[in-house]
Structures are given as C-alpha cells and as structure tokens.
Amino acid sequence: MQPTDSEKIKQEFKALRTRQLIAIGVTLALLLLIALLYNHTHLLEGFAKNDILSAQILILCVFIGFSSYNWKCPSCTRYIGPDINRRICKHCGARLR
C-alpha cells in the first residue's frame, strides 16, 4: 500500500524538521565551543582572535545556507517560515504535521 500524498508530505516534513533541529544543535554547539576558545586563545596558539571570529561567522553563514536549502515545504518548495512547529504551509495550505 502506497502512502497518500498528504502522508508523504508529512513524512518529508518530519525528515526536514529533524535535519533542521540537528543543524540547530550542531551550530549552537560549535558556536559555544568557539566562543570558549575565543576566551582561551592559549589553547590554540596558532590562531588569532580574528581567525576564531571568522570561524564563527563562517559557521553562521553555513547554517543560514543550509536552512535556506532545507527549510522548504515538501509540497510547494517555498520557504516554510521561522516557526519550527508549523502545522500548515502558509503558501499552499498543505498539512505538514
């Protein structure tokens, strides 16, 4: 038995949401780690504080790029919006959860 379109959309959204939550967790962990290294530069003597700040900016840019690619409605492929718990797409009305 094949899943219906609405069930397929819900499954795809669940996968999108899981990837997005993992990306948020990894990004926060990396930013906190680098913030700690910023205050303790003696641990990484070969890196200047500017290098550490650049790494933080790079991590944020990668997260924003990933989110713009990942966080799209499985039905209409438009940006879902900032709500991680969205139930209905505001553009096409597809049920996401």
Fold and architecture overview:
With about 100 residues, this protein is mostly helical. About 60% of the residues lie in helices and about 0% in strands. Helix 1 packs antiparallel against helix 2. The two termini are about 20 Å apart.
- The termini sit apart by 21 Å
Rg, rounded, reads 18 Å
Total of DSSP H or I helical runs spanning 4+ residues: 2
Determine the strand fraction and express it as a percent band. under 5%
The poorly predicted ranges are none
The beta-strand count equals: 0
Described by strand count, sense and barrel closure, the largest sheet is: none
- Classification by helices and strands: mainly alpha
Instruction: Assign a percent range to the helix content.
Output: 55-70%
Can you give me a brief rundown of this structure?
Helix content is 59%, strand content 0%. With 97 residues, it is mainly alpha-helical.
